[in-house]
Structure formats: C-alpha cells, structure tokens
Amino acid sequence: MTEPSSSLVPFPRAPLPPEKKRGRQQVGPRLEKLRRRLGYSMAAVSQSLDIDQRILDAYEIGTRLPSDELLLRLAAFYDVDVRRIIGDVDDAVPNETEETLWLSWAEIKLEPDDTNRVRLGRIASSLRSIRGLAEDAPVTIRTEEVITLARVLVIEDSDLRADLQHCLALDDADVDELAARLWYEDQKVKELPS
Q1: Share of the chain above pLDDT 90, in %
Q2: Nearest-5° angle of CA 3, CA 5, CA 10?
Q3: From residue 131, how far is each of 61, 63, 66, 105, 106 by CA, in Å?
Q4: What is the pLDDT of residues 57-67, one digit of tens each?
Q5: Does residue 87 contact residue 71 with C-beta atoms inside 8 Å?
Q6: 3-state secondary structure 23-81
Q7: Dist. CA 104–CA 58, nearest whole Å
Q8: pLDDT band at residue 119, thresholds of 50, 70 and 90?
Q9: How far is C-alpha 68 from the chain's CA centre?
Q10: How many CB atoms lie under 10 A from the CB of residue 34?
Q11: HSE of 141 in the Cβ direction (CA atoms, 13 Å)?
C-alpha cells in the first residue's frame, strides 16, 4: 500500500445520519459512472485515495460497500456532494424546490424566471470549469446533456440559436445541430402521456 497523498483534501468525519443509510445497491454504479465521466482511471483513484484497486473495483461492481468515511473521501476527491453518490439526488434532474440542476456532476442554481441566456450562461460556465476549458472556448454538449437542456430551456424561444451561439461559443453549423437536437428531445417529452 502506498503512503496517502498529501494533496488530499481534508474531509468531515461525521457519519451519515441513519435515515440516509442508503439504498447502497446503487452506490457502486454511481461511483463508476462518476469516475468515468470525470475521466479518471481506476488506478488513479485508488492511488490518490490509498485504496487497493481490487477493493475499488468491488465497490464499483457492488460486491462491497464503502464505509461512510470512505464515501465522504470519495465525494471530496470527486468534488461532489456525498448525496450524489448515495442517491439522495437524482442525476441531471432539476429539483423543483431548490431550483437546482445537476449536470455532469455539477450543481447549477436556476431561478424560475431565468431567461435561456442566463441558464445557458450558468450551464456553460459550469461545463467549462468541469472540463478545464478556457472561458471563451466552445462547449460541446453531450447527448445526456442535450436531454437535460431540453428540460430546462424554452425551446420555442426565438432567441434560442443566438443564446446557444453566445453562451456556448459554437459556430453556425454546431448551433443548428444542437438546436435541432434540443427540439427533437423537447418533442419526445411532449409526446409522453401525462
């Protein structure tokens, strides 16, 4: 076992409340999804957190359950709220009471009266930060993100294309493609029986 990395962020040691003692069956897939989305190899995570790689693998496939302390360390390492790992917060679904959108493991505060431009600005800023992009770099929107954006944007807004271009720094062809994908996802949601 290697020595713990001195670059680890200190983490709180308080145990999770009993009512949050999870449906741990889903913790493993969430850990794997988080690690993959952020581009970490299993070896990098296990080395950084001083966890045997086989044990980390067992956590991800669900044959072992991480302790509360380890869950807090993993949350600190991935820079996410531990609730994202234990399943108290659904992935990429706006929380109606808190006006919060989870997108690519980022928490984005939204207000009910935000315009598309304000929402896209916040989303673009978060995605640039997560991906390590410059402030003016184009932001590619992934398929799962398109589905989420279609839920929180007003697709019929006549300024949508201009807002996409302004906030995401996309060229005309990319804006047209993204707008078409957003429209398609919006139509799929409207066709669902209520």
Answers
A1: 25
A2: 120
A3: 26, 31, 27, 11, 11
A4: 999 888 888 88
A5: no
A6: CHHHHHHHHHHHHHHCCCCHHHHHHHHCCCHHHHHHHHHCCCCCCHHHHHHHHHHHCCC
A7: 24
A8: very high
A9: 21
A10: 21
A11: 27
Which residues on neighbouring strands pair with residue 146, listed in sequence order?
A: none
CATH 1.10.260.40 residue ranges for the chain: 18-86
Single-letter residue type at 1: M
Q: What are phi and psi of 104, to 5 degrees?
A: 50, 40
Q: Tell me the Cα Rg of the chain.
A: 19
Distance of CA 6 to the CA centre of its chain: 26
Q: Is residue 8's pLDDT more than 60?
A: no
18-86 has CATH 3.10.450.590 classification = no
Cβ count within 10 A of residue 161: 15
- What is the token pair recorded at 130? 């997560």
Among residues 81, 86, 73, the alpha carbon closest in space to that of 46 is found at 73
